[in-house]
Design goal:
Aldehyde Dehydrogenase, Chain A, domain 1, Aldehyde Dehydrogenase, Chain A, domain 2, 2 domains, six-stranded mixed β-sheet, Ald_DH_CS_GLU
Length: 507
Amino acid sequence: MTTTPSQSIELPATRQLIDGEWSDAPVDLPTELENPNTGEVVARMKATADADVERVAAAAARVHETGEWLNVPAEERAAILESVADALDAAAPRIAALESFGSAAVIGTTAMLATVINGGSFRLAAGLLRQGRLMHKVDVELSQSDPKAQAEVHRLPWGPSLSLVPWNAPAPQGCHKIANSLAVGAPTILKPSEWAPYGTTVMAEVVSAALDAAGAPKGTFQVVQGNSHVGGMLVKDARIRAISLTGGLAAGRAIAAVAAEDFKATQLELGGNNPVVVLDDADLDFAANGIVELMTQLNGQWCRALGRLIVQGSIYDDLMAKVMDRLAQVRLGDSLSPDSDMGPMVHSGHLAMLRGRIEEYVSQGGVAHSSTPLPDLAGNFLAPTLITGVTSEAAQEEMFGPVATVHQVSDDAEAVRVANGTPFGLEGYVFAGNEERGLAVARQVRAGGVKVNGSTMLSLNLMAPRPAWGLSGLGVEGTTETFDFFTNSRVVGVENFSAAGLKAVFG
């Protein structure tokens, strides 16, 4: 029997980092982890013990209270972060391979993310430190007779932070969170997804080694493993003051409810049911390519993937034919094979959920369309599927896979109405021949970001925010936004107001 590339990879142990010491996570959970490409069981899900979770919180609180990491000068912290970035660059091939195995995304995608995002996140955070983002001065000229009233605005960490990352692209998302938390001086705790711990754990080992080499205090960065029980312990812990989650709606709601009890800062990115609107003047070949890209990137298992395809009626048949033709050319295969365009679903339970959703739509009168050949592998493979014949009112929930519903509309106004017809609002896409027309539609789509004639997973602009509307989350991610999220402001100055000055300001 031929060995597939994913069967040749050496998997690391699921390890934890507690107050400067690495060890294997000791608790066996009931769930077995499988090779998503073959269905073979490769490991048992592991977790950090409750007593060790308590040690993690205590160490993080100690580092915060003593100021050991916060008091490292910003320029020095920036240099340390840049050394972490260099180490991550060197480890990118290993991390990318493990990410491809764990998340089932194809190696071409995970290699790009490991090369661009992992080290890049630390360099961007270091750059913000060097720009002085943690402190600025505010000057107000009160009157000709009064001097300026000057105040310093300092950005300081809320306290120890917890970063919870999902199983799709976990290492890049983890790097974005922990780089900014470390940059602002916060003791930082990372919990990888229990479904895909491999690449994130190795990434964390690289980060830890670079921090140690630079002399960072013990407990500055820690790693716990396990399921929602472990994460929940830290979410409830009063010593944890900021929580950044990329995950599902149920997890986000649970965290928000607990965090509200002691007003922890929360940043919650919870996914979406993203609309793709194709207007009747669009280049249909270009649009079809974009639709396929949005269905197959990260195997459709990403928060900004296509959820609902909204097409003006006059181009419906032609566009569907072009999309199905392109889907027939998609190469489903082992995620670590460079010849694969798309890999399997992350685990058998997720595959079963998606199949169940397709069957549910079909039972409601929908028709499932797929043309991608399945590989001769026993993994969790699902051909990208478009479902026609269901109402937009029925297509309310996120699929989180290569499955989307299709809806015909008559004009731009109806397209906007259908696009805005769910409680989610993460991302939207508009394909149009006339860019001004496309922008006019895009400005009406209720989402944090809307791309016109674009379908890549990268942001429109490196410095642009990534907001979430409705059930897609709470708070804003982004290069500067995540940096700021881990902090609160403290305003310091000598009062210098007088009656004359106040009169000059307020009249």
